[in-house]
Design goal:
Layout (H helix, E strand, L loop, with lengths): L2 E6 L11 H25 L4 E7 L3 H8 L4 E3 L7 H15 L4 E5 L8 H11 L4 E5 L6 E6 L13 H7 L3 E2 L6 H4 L5 H10 L3 H13 L1
Parallel strand pairs: 1-2, 1-4, 2-3, 5-7
Antiparallel strand pairs: 4-6, 5-6
Helix pairs in contact: 1-8
């Protein structure tokens, strides 16, 4: 099965607010962009991925991620993460009604293409499935097979929300890079320990210099 990934991204000025204590408002937007760039680059290199759609209204992010091969869909609803994902999925299926779609976080800078392929291949067994984040509270990926609504419920305690919605939780070992999203300084350190992409590595080096 070939998947279309839908990745939502807030305007960079508002993204990753919980990193402000670590990066400050000067470096935080650049980190958020670097996370998204490394996420999109790894996703596009995944053998199970047909294409990547990014839902964003940020002009700079749109240009940079389009240069990596992503299709940019404006966040017309402007009503938060779940609305952006529904909008992006609708845009995909307006062209390919039977597309298999997976929502993926934009803050997975350590993402490995082959680990993502393992997750998507496992998800292909189910109508809807999700992968919990490294903290075991949130969700980093939600997949919906052809003909199935995505029905995202991202937000606080989304692992429990997706389970309650009937999606199957994927229990896989060895896919840490797909689970390690970055919201805090501790998350960033954990991602760096896994090994991040080149853009995040450069942005993190600037952070260390600034410190």
């Amino acid at each position: 099965m070939q998947w279309t990934l839908v990745i939502p991204l807030k305007p960079l000025a508002r993204a990753k607010s919980r990193l402000a204590a670590t990066a400050g408002d000067g470096l935080r937007p650049g980190l958020a962009l670097a996370f998204a760039q490394d996420t999109v680059a790894a996703a596009a290199a995944c053998p199970a991925v047909r294409n990547v759609v990014v839902v964003t209204d940020d002009a700079l992010a749109g240009r940079e991620l389009a240069a990596l091969g992503a299709r940019i869909v404006p966040d017309t609803p402007g009503e938060g993460l779940n609305a952006a994902l529904r909008h992006g999925t609708a845009a995909v299926r307006a062209e390919r009604p039977e597309a298999a779609v997976a929502a993926l976080n934009a803050d997975l800078p350590a993402l490995r293409p082959l680990e993502l392929a393992r997750v998507l291949d496992d998800a292909a067994q189910f109508r809807r499935a999700f992968l919990p984040d490294a903290a075991g509270i949130g969700t980093t990926l939600l997949a919906a097979a052809a003909g199935t609504e995505l029905r995202p419920v991202f937000g606080t305690a989304s692992r429990a929300g997706h389970a309650a919605s009937g999606a199957v939780e994927l229990a896989l070992d060895g896919v840490d890079s797909v689970r390690q999203d970055v919201d805090t300084g501790d998350d960033l350190r954990a991602a760096l320990a896994l090994g991040v992409g080149p853009r995040t590595a450069a942005a993190a080096a600037r952070l260390l210099i600034a410190d």
